[in-house]
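Hi W.,

Here's what went into the run:
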Amino acid sequence: QGVKNAQLENQALKERLRIVEEQNKILSANKGRRKKDDAVAEDILAFEAELKVCAKRYSLMVNMFPPPAALLKTTLPDPALSFNTAARYATTGSQEIAVLAELYDMLPQHLYHLVPMNQFSNVFSKAVCAGRASELNKLRSATGQIFELPQCYFAISYARDTETEIRHQLLGTTGKAGESYPTLPPMLFPGNIVNCSCKTLFGNWQLIAKTLSCCLKGRTSLSNESRRQGGAPPNAVKWGVMAVTPGAVAWAIVANIFLLSPDQEFSQEGKGKTSRINYGMIFMFFKELLICDWEKPCLKTIIKHINTFIFERTSCPSHDLNSRDSADDLQEEMCLARLGLAADTEDDLSLSDNENASIDVLAKATGNIALRDSNEAPTPLSTTTMTSTL
DNA sequence: AGGCGGAGAGTCCAGTTTAG
DNA sequence: CTAAACTGGACTCTCCGCCT
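Here's what came out:
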């Protein structure tokens, strides 16, 4: 009797399932015809995989944060603005256009028509965030190697802010309650020593190079001994990336700060929950600085070092890292010193207004003032607002 | 064989909605 | 009004296909 009852029950359930499935089919079929938008949605769906790859590349090489949805609706002015020069920071309008131009530059032409669609922003933003999260997750397992510290410090819930090497030597805070994080942490300077006149900013380029190498060439590119044994093509090969960009360098700096910070997650708005570091603003700050100074010889030298480290190194990075000949070192130091000198005296008459503006930002930031959230609305990417916040 | 990256399921947490 | 239920965002883990 028991078996019989169970069988009957089973049959009844199956019948019910069949009815529900049928109803579901009808509902989804109707849903398909209800909106005019659906052809559009299908179009985006068809290119979804390609779009996701582009979004991830965009998030690492161009902009750590997805562009605002409203911006995607606007059309690009016909003579496309050059977005990799200081000119983009002239006005708020030119900055927005540059963000859009950058996006279009990143996408293959056959995807252009998708950008203004409603669904695009949603799909693209999600992919940007997912890509960023997966890279940060990968980095977290290699952070010990990057900073030459015990890997256990970087377990997600480890109290990193209690370790003085991290808190004091790399991030530059004393650990007092309510203290803010400096915009230019010691880890950006050689020997982790902040130079008040910024003479050696980015001199500690190895950390940036290692971070980007891990993201672009895979985790094993960091280890000295084991050479790459095979595997799927790493991101750099997949994306055809041959050199780092200002966005990528800024990405690496922000990622390094995040990995050292006590924060456990990287929110979409770009603000650290525990540290209250405003990562979004820091990213904008460094990207602007890098774009404005990209062609300056001192920065060029550093970028060359980073590119060599990531793209030309075949094996044994420790040699390249630690035993560069002193003449090379000296030359680099001098070069950096010139960058700092320009910031101090502003005696370089060839500087454009925008370059001066970037130096202004830099000089103010050196005063150990943090780009920290002060319970205000997120500030847009502009030099003027940035300096006033500082 | 083993590294790489992606998909997707699962976890955790915080904010919001809903039932009582 | 409160507590339970739901929802959504971000991260984690595992598996799988691809590749050298």
